[in-house]
Fold these 2 entries.
Entry 1:
Amino acid sequence: VLTTVVSWAIGFERNSKASVEAIMDPEARALLAEFARTEGRIDELNAQIAAKAGTLKQVLKESGELSHEIVTTNYELELLRLQLRDRESENRKRNRTIRSFVFERVAGAAGQPDAFFPQGKLTAGAQSDGRLWRIARAGKGDLKMVGGGEVVGGIPKGLPSFSLPKMSWDMLGTLFSTAIVISLVGFMEAISIAKAMAAKTRQKIDPNQELLGQGLANLVGALSQSFPVSGSFSRSAVNLNAGAMTGMSSVFTGVFVLLTLLFLTPLLYHLPQAVLAAVIIMAVIGLVNFEAIKHAWQASRHDGIAAIATFVATLAFAPHLDNGILVGAGLAILLYLVRTMKPRVAILGRYADGTLRDAAVHDLPASDVVTAVRFDGRLYFANVSYFEDAILEAVANNPKAGNLLVVGDGINELDASGEEVIHHLVDRLRSNGVNVFFAGLKKQVIDVMRATGLLDHLGPGSLFATADMALEAIYASAAAAGKDADQALLPQK
């Protein structure tokens, strides 16, 4: 309230209209003229695209199949769209340059319009008003000149009228794919905000409930032709910092917004936009948890990289937070695949306390009877080649051992690729005189083996509940064969 009153009292907003002829800078005038011409060309292209799209739609309806006319029309339509994107890109660059010009205003004499001279280039005897002016909006008409700060400005008074949206099968077909993308991105953004708030307040969220609420909000919003509804990180942060405890805070906020739209919109005209930005920054900064990023980095380099990349991408793509979230999610998935492509593989040895441990870490002796290998991770398409290489390397490094024991208590999942690799690996090792055994496999892994017939292919006596049971059976078999076996991996009694 105070800043609004001060803004009104000191005339914080200083706007003026001017024609292109009032700009006393040849470079700026040439750029403005080119900008206006390109805007006219953009309008022409939009009209041509609309007409061409209608033609294509009519041709598709009449022919119903691919034809030379359809291909030609579609090509012409895409060419027009490409030209439109080029013209829009050119004008965006021109607009940035136009907004960078700084002028000084000189009052016109006796009914003449004011003139705007480049800063520091006033003509002899000219007196400026002491303010610096910029072009805020260029177009085919008058220019909007700004010599003060930005305020909220006029807010439409009242509520939108309610009406059912126009629906048709053609419109549904056109908008379906776009609507799916918008709904997924909107839900992803809302749920990420909800999780951040839940972590701050130590509450539990229900994603299904969030999706239901967002869907209902969009259904109701469609009756007033609103934009798609999603969560707002900044508004949620302001709401939380204001002491909100339940969802009723949003109900009261909605009531106050309703009253404001009906009666108080003129009072918000002079509210500086910088004040709104400061409120949002002060609210959001408390939700940026750098300690969480540091903790993620310490726990896992991959998680830390994903967290930092998401943070940077969100800032870079602002205000399009969805793009930053997509970058972070994509990177997290990629890093997960990289991490699971090479899980830990350990050659086991018998430790002094009788347990099986990593022989390389604890400098444990190998056995001439059996090579015991433990695979720590799900066995799926991304790491099957690594699993195969690790097993073959372990067998090659211990050529005297005629048995291989795969300790699978760390294998949580087995997909079709993993099952196929095991099948071929067993055949390959058996053909080279190496017996293959498995121990500690979990139910879901055994279920896959049973369903694919791999369990029958392995044969009886190849699966054991524990590694010790498997080793006892392997050593007993070696003793029965009359081999002089070492006791390196034999379970202690």
Entry 2:
Amino acid sequence: MVRTESFWVVMQIPDSFRGGGGNMEHYSPQEDGNIRTPAHQAIEDDDLDGLVHLLRQGVDPDEVCDGMTLLLRAIDYEADTAIQGGEEMGSSFTKALLYYGADPLLRAPSGETPAEMAEYYGHKEALRILMGNTKGEKGE
């Protein structure tokens, strides 16, 4: 169990997650009060190796947490981090999730697709990758 300021969170972390591939013990309440899964937390922690490790272990690449798929969280993280840091937007998380089978057409609860989110943020590389992965599926 992990003690937080407000309550206890019971965790069972498979032995295969221990000793490599990132810190898997982040399944706990965040400052915003949300509880994130290890895969979603790996993105928030900029832990690409940890995310890939989890995907290789069988985590669903379309997993939803806090109303966001992993792909939506990746695009949001990549764009937000670049905007705040004044850097070029990376696309490593987006590429990894698509490689492991994330559905680029799954929508956010607000109705936007990952491509629409990438376009909103001006995340051109993610948009290019997403359009390449969805071409033909919309009849285009």
